[in-house]
């Protein structure tokens, strides 16, 4: 792995980091929208915990 980093530099790791960050932001945004559509965070928590 170290030899690959020396040969190609840090660009692949930066790309993986950027993709991971973008996916995390997308999931967070979808969670916020989903909670709003379900009627709030408390209702979403009840559904996820099986109480709803």
TrEMBL record:
PROSITE patterns membership: PROKAR_LIPOPROTEIN (PS51257)
The protein, known as: Uncharacterized protein
Organism expressing this protein natively: Methylobacterium aquaticum
Taxon lineage: Bacteria, Pseudomonadati, Pseudomonadota, Alphaproteobacteria, Hyphomicrobiales
């Amino acid at each position: 792995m170290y030899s690959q980093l020396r040969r190609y530099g840090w660009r692949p790791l930066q790309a993986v980091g950027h993709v991971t960050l973008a996916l995390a932001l997308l999931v967070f945004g979808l969670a916020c929208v989903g909670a709003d559509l379900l009627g709030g965070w408390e209702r979403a928590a009840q559904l996820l915990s099986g109480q709803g």
